[in-house]
Amino acid sequence: MAGRTWHSLPEYEALRALMESGTTSKAALRLGLSQSAISRSISSLEARLGRILFERDGGRLRPTLEATQLNRRLDPLFEALDRIDGPTEPTQETLRLTAPPTYAHRFLVGHIATFLQANPHFYVSLEVNSAEDVIRRVQDDRSDLGMSGVDLTREGIKLTPYRYSEAACAMPSGHELADLDVIQAQDLHNQPLIALSRRHSRRAQLERVLTNSRSFPKIVAEASTSFAAVDLAREGLGVTVVNPFPVAQYRSEDVVFRRFASPIEYRTYFVTSDHKPTPAIARAFIRHLRLHTPKMPFTKPT
Hints:
This protein is α/β, with parallel strands linked by helices.
């Protein structure tokens, strides 16, 4: 039929192999073909689509945006082929997961447990790192999936929004501000405050909000994670302003959380590579988290 689009599976296989390996020699070795066969498949695919799919960068071929988008659209096709041609017995797949302590120590461990219970042939390797190292591990292909609460845009990295949260104040249940439904910046004037350490960008943002409202709390302690800050507040040291996700889920019984009226907002992201396909096990874990993350105050899915 005139004008009908035709498809070539060998061309698509060459595209995916080249995206994952970065060189025609490695792609050829992976598929059991010659380098010239890989090059011909890519050239044919580019000619058929009328798009440039790879640009030479030193000794490597860097995929263009068009190649990355096409590769994502091919995921369902190759997943279906894997189910048809794959072994009858599931083989053990490994998810290399990385996240900062706030997400890793309490939130992710429970979801990893239920994920593995539902998928006994899967295996998860969890690395706990700083937000910068989370990005770096995914960049260097040392992790398949990361979670981050910091918008760190880097070459070769894709950030997929997962949760949106409002800022919240945490304090002991008997605190004088606990009777308020919403905490204003002025309410924190002269109050003992537990701040996040200065390496966090939110520290400077909170200080601007307070200064603009002529509110000057007494900083009595600093903490590098929201869990530590909330735990210090629970001990009666003062109030803290934090991202309530996911700490509110684990501390709501012994700490009071109240919305902090301010322009401060937080986003949590899934971190994946933008230069290679996201492994099926990583996509399965993302779906598991989206499905099983409970409803919580101050936060919602994106």
